[in-house]
Task: inverse folding
């Protein structure tokens, strides 16, 4: 029998816990398997979500993940060097991926800028290429990446922005960049699955107000500012506890800061967890102190779990949160984090109002509309 399915290839770096990884998983789980034959190609078979790939998806990878490397430090060092060299070579030599894929595709998708080059350099010149973008181009740390990204974007056949804010900032900052045909598509939220996971267990929290936050420990996530605000509140007698779920490059710096401020017990790092949702559900409040964001899934997740949120007014967050209605928006300032947390702990009428407005929050998220939009793009491109 002839296989009339459209062949779709997703390229991605790895499957560490993160927003983009969840977007990839939601697409793999929900795009119509009767229409599409999907493959996921990872640079590294690595991360907490690497075993979450649905069984009908073909998964391949260029190199082993850190989980599979030798426990012998000398052997591990050699393996890491070899892995680095292979990944470096694969950036310019698409035949490395070809040997593993052993197939050609109608559509190839780069779900983040980190794999733009891999998709655009594909040896399959007949495939249609889709780029997906979730980042704020004005963030200082993004500046070194801009020359390459600005050159790559016009080469795609279609381009998806993860939020309206992401697109607006890009167009305003780079009005001369010739964008391919494009669309804003928000991230999907598996509502029933999310609520089920949130009820998996009940974590033990101290008997005081608890703020939760889920994010990678990067400097742009603002946890250093949040910790300063936390220490100041404690000093002034506002007893509370903060739990941070995630891992990353800033972990050691943050732990040193916690020791210096004397908050190692009250500013708790739980590491990266496959299921952070019971902590979000059972905390009193959620706080996201980021310097920049795209359209953060964790904010949508937390809204669905009907938890009052304090979040910085960046990226796509104001598309989800209306100030003092279903959450509380602040600027990326320590003083504003301090004031907002104090307000949440001392103004029960504000919390009651937010909780009331969160009762019908499901109506805000239409997953099928999102999957239909992506399917329509793939179908349209494959028939060109």
Result:
């Amino acid at each position: 029998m002839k296989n009339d399915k459209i062949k779709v290839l997703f390229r991605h770096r790895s499957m560490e816990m993160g927003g983009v990884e969840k977007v990839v998983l939601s697409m793999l789980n929900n795009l119509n398997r009767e229409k599409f034959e999907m493959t996921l190609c990872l640079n590294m078979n690595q991360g907490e979500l690497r075993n979450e790939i649905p069984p009908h998806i073909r998964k391949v990878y260029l190199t082993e993940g850190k989980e599979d490397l030798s426990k012998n430090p000398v052997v591990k060092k050699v393996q890491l060097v070899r892995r680095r060299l292979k990944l470096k070579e694969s950036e310019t030599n698409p035949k490395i991926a070809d040997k593993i894929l052993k197939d050609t595709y109608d559509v190839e998708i780069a779900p983040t800028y980190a794999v733009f080059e891999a998709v655009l350099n594909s040896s399959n010149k007949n495939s249609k290429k889709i780029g997906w973008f979730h980042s704020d181009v004005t963030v200082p740390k993004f500046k070194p990446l801009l020359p390459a990204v600005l050159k790559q974007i016009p080469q795609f056949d279609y381009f998806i922005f993860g939020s309206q804010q992401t697109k607006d900032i890009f167009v305003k900052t780079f009005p001369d960049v010739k964008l391919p045909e494009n669309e804003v598509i928000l991230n999907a939220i598996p509502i029933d699955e999310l609520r089920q996971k949130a009820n998996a267990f009940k974590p033990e929290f101290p008997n005081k107000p608890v703020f939760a936050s889920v994010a990678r420990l990067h400097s742009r996530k603002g946890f250093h500012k949040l910790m300063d605000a936390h220490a100041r509140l404690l000093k002034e007698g506002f007893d509370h506890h903060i739990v941070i779920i995630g891992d990353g490059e800033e972990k050691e710096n943050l732990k040193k800061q916690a020791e210096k401020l004397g908050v190692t017990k009250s500013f708790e790092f739980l590491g990266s967890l496959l299921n952070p949702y019971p902590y979000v559900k059972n905390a009193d409040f959620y706080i996201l102190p980021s310097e920049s964001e795209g359209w953060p899934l964790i904010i949508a997740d937390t809204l669905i779990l009907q938890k009052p949120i304090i979040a910085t007014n960046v990226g796509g967050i104001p598309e989800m949160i209306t100030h003092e209605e279903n959450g509380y928006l602040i600027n990326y300032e320590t003083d504003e984090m301090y004031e907002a947390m104090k307000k949440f702990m001392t103004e029960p009428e504000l919390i009651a109002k937010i909780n009331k407005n969160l009762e019908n929050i499901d109506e805000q998220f239409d997953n099928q509309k999102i999957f239909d939009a992506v399917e329509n793009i793939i179908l349209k491109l494959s028939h060109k």
